[in-house]
Amino acid sequence: MKALLEVKDLKKSFGSRQAVDGISFEVEEGDVFGLLGPNGAGKSTTLSMICGLLKANSGSVTVGGYDIAAESMAAKKLIGIVPQEPALYTQLSAKANLRFWGRINGLRGKELNRAVDEVLDLVGLTDRASGRIGKFSGGMKRRLNIAAGLIHSPKLLIMDEPTVGIDPQSRNHILETVKNLKQKGITVIYTSHYVEEVEALCNQVAIMDNGTIIAEGSLAELQKKGGQFQELNIDLNSYPEKAQSAIQMLPGVEETFLIDQKLKIVTPNAEQILPLALEAISRQGVTIGEIKIHKPNLESLFLKLTGKALRD
Amino acid sequence: MKKTIAVVSVGIRQMLADPLYLVFALAVPLLMTWVMSFLPTGDGSYEMAILGVLVMFVGLNIITSAGGYIIDEKQTGTWQRILASPTSYWELMTGYFIKIFVLAWLQSLVLLLSSKYLFGAPWNQGYLEVVVVLTVYIFAMTGLGLFIAGFVKSTGQVQMVAMAVVMVGTMLGGVFFPIEEPSGIIKLIGTVSPQSWAARALQEILTSGINLTTLVTPLLWMSAIGLLLLIGGVLKLQLES
User: Fold this and answer.
1) From CA B105, how far away is CA B136, in angstroms rounded?
2) How, if at all, do strands A204-209 and A212-218 pair?
């Protein structure tokens, strides 16, 4: 497969803060590529550089063979963006907005009319085409935001956390839309800090933290890596530090992390550790609230690699 | 060019669909023009006041539209979305410029026609000259508006700066009332303020019937100010983008 997007040694700093620190990755045609990481990991800065909105300090981005810095117009024709917050004209109707974004992307006449009808249908807003979007719900605006990104049939659709802060029904609709795009063979970059979304949608994943890519590969590869570890979460009512010290000594415990009153234990076999952990905790006179065993996933891999939870 | 027209079209539609904009740009100045029509006629103060309202509100409209609209676009993300499309910065800025220009002309036209036909202002001559002076004035104020847009960060700041610039330039520039033998800072404001130049030129055209050849100085001055500020503002905004 040919790489539609190539990112090479990309760096960007703001003052003394290194927001993106020499990342490289490729996205092949037809991939749904997940860029996963906590807030402040550098995902949005990376996307801004890919779109040509921010100039990189060094490194390169090529889209469809066009360098975003040197041949920006040709590269931008291939890109559609879906910003985190709906970037739309609230005083105008859904249709007027889509017509504008179509014209800005070079569509005219019948081609524009057809594209507007198609994307309205795709996001399920055909019956609200004439409605002023200032009166739309948050979820409807998000769906229209996706339609605006798709209006010119881009080869590469960049979606920046499109489901943050919306109701479950709209979220499901958006996830279904992305699955639909995947079936149509549209290449998508999907950033999120929701592991379950990335696992449900993406076939390739890069995990970012502090401006660098800390793990990258196919979803299956990364799940396998994460699969070596389970996460045992124990809510502690008192003396969490004492409990953590006791648990660290147990055989089979890879790492422990204390986040507020929650003790997270990374281990290859949570069920085997659990009785030993409970005994060690009770010997310290610590009382326990809730216990959860998480199946291995990208979250446990992230925790293992960084010592942080993705949603911290 | 087609993308520029799209930017102009969506901008004008967005503004005209905003009730607050219509109140600020049309209803309030129309009300002020009506109030001014109660001033005594004959000594020139009525004509001066009506033209003062026009010059002041057109200036306010232009500066708040230019700065406020760009800040609003940046906050909602439409600015970034346009720049992420295959649309150049220059196509976008040309679109903004034309949009502000057209809206300011529409506002001027409504105020001039309403003052003549609704409130009895004695405008019977110099129509071509009025068009030229207003066009150059709107150009100068659009330059000023885009210059300010390059430096302010919030719509609150835009409103404060617009009020300060327009009020000082209008009131101390002798737009509403003549200032006899001004000196010092008052003289300076009267000399640099485009409002002052525009109001004086319009009044002379509409009441005394002077022609374009005698208006070379105000026209050149306003064009020069507009061009300088426009270049400064557009380059500053490009640097930020």
Assistant:
1) 11
2) antiparallel
Say which residue the tokens 């085409």 belong to: A129
B78 contacts A105? CB cut-off 8 A = no
How many whole angstroms separate alpha carbon A128 and alpha carbon A135?
A: 11
- What is the nearest CA distance from A89 to chain B, expressed in angstroms? 7
Q: Is A132 exposed, middle or buried (0-12, 13-18, 19+ CB in 10 A)?
A: middle
Contact B140/B169 with Cβ under 8 angstroms?
no
CA distance A262 to chain B (A): 38
Which amino acid is present at A163? T
Contacts of B17 in chain A (CB under 8 A): 91-92, 132
**C-beta atoms surrounding B177 within 10 Å:** 11
Cβ atoms of residues B59 and B161 within 8 Å: no
In tens digits, chain A (312 residues) has pLDDT values of 678 999 999 999 998 889 999 999 999 998 999 998 888 889 989 999 999 989 999 999 999 999 998 899 999 999 999 998 899 999 899 999 999 999 999 999 999 999 999 999 988 889 998 889 988 888 889 999 999 999 999 999 999 988 887 788 888 888 888 888 888 888 999 998 788 888 888 889 898 988 999 888 888 777 777 667 777 888 887 777 888 888 888 888 877 877 777 888 888 778 888 888 888 888 888 888 888 887 767 777 777 777 666 655
Residues in CB range of A101: below 8 A, 6 or more apart: A148, A151, A152, B81, B85
Q: Is A121 helix (H, G, I), strand (E, B) or coil?
A: helix
- The nearest alpha carbon in chain B to A82 belongs to B81
Query: Which H helix or E strand runs over B23?
Result: none
Give the total residue count for chain B. Answer: 241
**Cβ distance A281 to A247 under 8 Å?**
yes
